[in-house]
Design a protein that fits this description.
The chain has 201 residues and is α/β, with parallel strands linked by helices. Helix content is 36%, strand content 25%. The strands form 2 sheets. Strands 1, 4, 5, 6, 7 and 8 form a 6-stranded mixed beta sheet that branches. It has a two-stranded antiparallel sheet with strand order 2-3. The chain is globular, with a radius of gyration of 19 Å.
């Protein structure tokens, strides 16, 4: 990061991104009617944030929520998939496309930090937050005629702590602005970086 050397990008499947886009359009059709999509109704608290122009901004990191640390000249950016409002409290909601049923505990392990960072961003921008957020998993069940794929939908409520998000940001800054960490022999990026520096010197 400090030396402006970008990691080599691996192959990224386009299907999850495509799913993400169509889910957003689907949710927006219910937002306009001030309703929740039927597959999550009764399983999440609150309603979709009603301002469609605002959520459109929040969905892009260039126009989304930001948290500035002016002393160290650093900014945390976030792009929310969606957001619920319950009694003037804002609750982050993120869509996840998986190939299989999510395992118990996996949500907190892999995405808890992400939702906590969203809570930090909301809080630092003057919104009241709860101590949780939601992940809504979409995973395939079967293929029907005419190429229609039937998906299962599973909303999961997970803990979200703005201070955990702040701690992550603080540790990231300490790493980026501190002494360069030692290279790890088993890290593919470290190995690639060594080769790149040798070739460019």
């Amino acid at each position: 990061m400090n030396k402006k050397l970008h990691r080599p990008r691996g192959i990224f499947p386009s299907l999850p991104g495509g799913m993400d886009n169509v889910i957003k359009v689907f949710y927006d059709t219910y937002r306009k009617r001030d309703k929740l999509p039927p597959e999550i109704e009764g399983q999440v608290e609150g309603k979709l944030i009603p301002d469609i122009e605002l959520i459109a901004k929040w969905r892009h990191w260039r126009t989304g929520l930001e948290y500035h640390d002016e002393i160290r000249e650093a900014t945390l950016y976030g792009a929310l998939d969606d957001c619920l409002v319950d009694d003037n409290y804002y609750i982050p909601l993120d869509y996840k496309t998986r190939g299989y049923t999510p395992k118990d505990g996996a949500s907190e392990k892999y995405y808890g930090n992400q939702i906590s960072c969203y809570n930090l961003l909301l809080k630092e921008n003057g919104f009241k937050v709860r101590d949780y957020g939601y992940l809504v998993y979409y995973y395939p069940e079967s293929v029907r005629k005419d190429g229609l794929v039937q998906f299962n939908v599973k909303p999961i409520k997970i803990k979200a702590d703005a201070e955990t998000g702040r701690d992550t940001f603080e540790r990231a800054l300490k790493l980026l602005k501190g002494q360069e960490p030692k290279k790890y022999a088993g890290c593919e990026y470290c190995s690639w970086n060594n080769e790149y520096l040798e070739e460019s010197s």
